[in-house]
Amino acid sequence: MMLLPIKVACGAVVITILIASVTNIAVAFCFWFFPWISLSIFLSSEVSFSLWWWIFHSPSLASQPDIHAPKHHDPEKAFSRFEALAKTSRLLAHKSYRKTGAISEEPPPVDIKRFLSWWFSGVDFSSVKRGNVAELFAYAFHYKTIAMMEQDGLGHLPMQMVERLEKATGNSLSLGYQEGLKPMFHLWEPLRCHPRPLTFYLLMELLSLWAHAVLVLVMRYKVHNMPKLVSTPSLACTSQEIPLAKLERVESSDVANANRRTPMPPKGGLIRGSTDRPFSLGVYTFGSPEGGWGSRPASGGLRAEGIKQRPQVVDCRDDHDMQPSRASSSPLHNAGLQHDEASSLLSLPPTARASKQKDSVGLCISSSSGVTSLATAGSSSCREPPILMLHGVGFGLMSYLPLAARLASTGRPVICMKIRHISMQLTRYIPMACEVAEDVIQVIDSLGVEQVSVVAHSYGTFVASVLAQRHGHRLHSACLIDPVCFGVFMPNLLGNFVYRHSHQLKGTGPMDWLMCFISRDVHVASTFGRRFYWSDVNLWADDLPKKCLVVLSGRDDLIHVEEVRCVINCCTSARLLYHPDHMHAGCLLDAKWQDKIVSEIVDLLGANKKH
Question: pTM of the entire structure?
Answer without folding.
Answer: 0.78
